[in-house]
Amino acid sequence: MELYEAMSTLRAVRRLRPDPIPEDVLQRVLTAATWAPSGGNHQSWRIITVSDAELKQGLEDLYRPHWEGYIPGYEQHMQNMPSAERESSRKALESGTYLANHMHEAPVICVFCFNFDHITVTDTALDRQSVVGGGSIYPAVQNLLLAARSEGLGCVLTTLLCIEEPKVKALLDIPADWHTAAYVPLGYPVLGGHGPISRKPIDKMVYRNTFGNH
Length: 214
Ligand SMILES: Cc1cc2nc3c(=O)[nH]c(=O)nc-3n(C[C@H](O)[C@H](O)[C@H](O)COP(=O)(O)O)c2cc1C
Fold this sequence. Notes:
Layout (H helix, E strand, L loop, with lengths): L2 H6 L14 H12 L10 E6 L2 H26 L4 H20 L5 E7 L23 H13 L3 E2 L9 H8 L6 E9 L14 H4 L9
Antiparallel strand pairs: 1-2, 2-4, 3-4
Helix pairs in contact: 2-5, 3-4, 3-6
The structure holds flavin mononucleotide.
The site of flavin mononucleotide (FMN) has 13 residues, from α4.
């Protein structure tokens, strides 16, 4: 698939069929993740491909309450949206609820883990939250998403489960010095899958030379 087409049609696909993913397809998608850059090329992330039925159910059971907790605030936020945006947000909310109740059906849930010991972080001395460490993890997630999209697999980057890290670590035998950064359910889409995305135009997002300057 052409790269720009993949990027511009990579939307959140949360309704996934339980059909297995052929091993060669999965290997290609996982390999794409390993091609991502990371600070110092340390690649201090790992993916656990969770396909075991009980473990997937365990992840879903931990995820669902957090999704349910997220809904009221989001519905409140939707009330101030223009009607077209509200409609697409309503659909996203429905698909999110579907995922929260069917996550275990995804043939594979990719759990991205990372280790702080080898992650290059250059912004911890600032008086704000540190974000640079994520730059050594999330490019791998995005590579995986793009490869999945190219293979016709539905996928969505999720992070709600990160709050349950201690329980996930116990469930998946993750060592003490490793942490969780993202969860990506992967599978063939129930509905149309990926497609056109809605994003702000470039003139709202990009400035010339100084901030705010067009
Ligand atoms: C950092 C991050 C965390 C996200 N966490 C969740 C999540 O926990 N659950 C979920 O259903 N979607 C999650 N999403 C998906 C976003 O809701 C989705 O990418 C966004 O609404 C755009 O949707 P679209 O690509 O379909 O337009 C997350 C996305 C990002 C980038």
